[in-house]
Write a structure and sequence with these properties.
Elements (H helix, E strand, L loop, with lengths): L2 E6 L2 E6 L10 H16 L5 E6 L10 H7 L12 E3 L6 E3 L14 E5 L2 E3 L1 H8 L2 E5 L3 E3 L13 H9 L1 H10 L3 E2 H7 L4 E3 L4 H13 L3 H13 L5 H28 L8 H4 L4
Parallel strand pairs: 2-3, 3-6, 6-8, 7-9, 8-11
Antiparallel strand pairs: 1-2, 4-5, 9-10
């Protein structure tokens, strides 16, 4: 089994389980990852996913040995029976070569990174909402040395996180980027001791899952919707994106605050979901 699922309360953990190849992704593995995240999106019993690779590696990229053996040389020749229609566009594109990288989920995903997250594995990490890295973990566009381009969003998401110049330097040199550097340049949000990335990510996920979800998802959506817009256009998007939340959820939260919950920054009482 290339992918395993574990859940606790309202947190689901998607586990890459090919430790013998450092969780490198072949087409079957990519299909399994895609299916796992589509199921997560549809599952009303879970709110946040953690994305982790067992065996001390997040993902070493595409399984090039497997692809060479199958005669798959380009993304267009990979499995395309799993498709994605971009919202409002309707245009067909094959599913990402690494699996879920072209999905636009309505719920957050946290990548928990131990060891390498390189080449396509780095692209999977960039697809997540945020990243927690172990101290000895690292990223890198390692596919540079094999003449394989970024086809799972790396050339799109990397400059949005770290800026165009720095992204181009990382993409063109393909060099190793340590966890400490990732934290410094904005490629990850936390660095934890070796072996603790999954635990830290699941703890963060439980905190996120404890909040009212309609407003949280609306704010997350607003962040994604503002890309490429002028400030005025982005403000309009934000307003219309959140208007339905007030009646559906905000009134209840305001009443809870009025009743004494969450005073003086006490998130412990404020995060109890009604």
């Amino acid at each position: 089994m290339t992918v395993r699922i574990e859940r606790r309360d309202r947190v689901l953990t998607v586990i890459q389980s090919r430790p013998d190849v450092r969780n490198a992704v072949d087409p079957d593995h990519a299909d399994a990852l895609y299916d796992a995240f589509v199921a997560f999106e549809a599952d009303e019993a879970v709110d946040v996913a953690v994305f982790w690779g067992e065996g001390g590696a997040f993902c070493a990229g595409a399984d090039l040995k497997s692809l060479a053996a199958r005669g798959i040389a380009t993304p267009e020749n990979r499995s395309t029976h799993r498709s994605l229609e971009f919202p409002k566009d309707g245009s067909f594109v094959p599913r990402g070569p690494m699996g879920p990288s072209r999905l636009e989920l309505g719920k957050p995903v946290i990548a928990a990174i131990e060891g390498p997250a390189v080449a396509g594995g780095m692209e999977l990490a960039l697809w997540a909402d945020c990243r927690i890295m172990a101290q000895d973990a690292y990223m890198g566009v390692y596919n540079r040395r094999w003449g394989v381009p970024l086809t799972d969003g790396g050339a799109v998401r990397l400059p949005r996180l770290v800026g165009e110049g720095r992204a181009l330097e990382l993409i063109m040199t393909g060099r190793k980027v340590s966890a400490d550097e990732c934290l410094r340049i904005g490629l990850c949000e936390r660095v934890v001791p070796k072996g603790q990335a999954r635990q830290a990510a699941e703890e963060m996920a439980r905190v996120i899952a404890g909040f009212p979800q309609l407003s949280l998802r609306a704010d997350r959506r607003s962040v994604h919707l503002q890309h490429g817009l002028t400030e005025r256009a982005a403000l309009e998007k934000e307003w219309y994106n959140c208007t339905g939340v007030f009646k559906a959820e905000s009134a209840t939260g305001i009443a809870r605050f009025a009743g004494g919950a969450g005073r003086h920054g006490d998130f412990g009482r404020a995060t109890t979901r009604s």
